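Next comes this protein:
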Amino acid sequence: MFKKYQLTILGILLGAIFGYLYYYYVGCATGTCNITSKPLNSTLYGAMMGGLLFNIFEKKPKKNIE
């Protein structure tokens, strides 16, 4: 399973790291921002975006219709 989805898993991990780094260095000064007000929100959003982005580059098997 890991071999099949390795790019997506890598994207999730990198996205989570960058999401947390965004919270840490940029964040939200007022606390009213939905995504960056809490580290969990920012990390999960980054993981989701990273997974979606890296999933684009996975090769899908071609279907033969004959």
